[in-house]
Amino acid sequence: MRRYYKQVQATAWQIDSRQPVRTDSRDHDPLRSTALAYYLFIYLVSLIMQVCFAGTNKEIWLSSLIALPALFAGILLGQLLFKKISQRVFQVLTYVILLFTGLYLLTTSL
Hints:
Helix content: over 70%
Structural class: mainly alpha
Strand content: under 5%
Shape: extended
Number of strands: 0
Largest sheet: none
């Protein structure tokens, strides 16, 4: 039994240490498209709820229209970066942004 366990452990170690981690962007396409569809739906529902329950005014719509060019520039930049950036770099950047956002929220709430 002990010999079998050592073989399984050695095989698992070889799989973990010798196999390259795939960071091909095609592996992430389904997750990305699902997330985009989800956020599109959620933002649409949020907008409808905002207009129905809290109301809106001319200033909000004007600010939204002014922000549209930045929105489209961000979408274009995201499309370009998605093809060039590895999954590992994306994860590190995401964690850094989350860390600074969390620190900001902590300092402003005190």
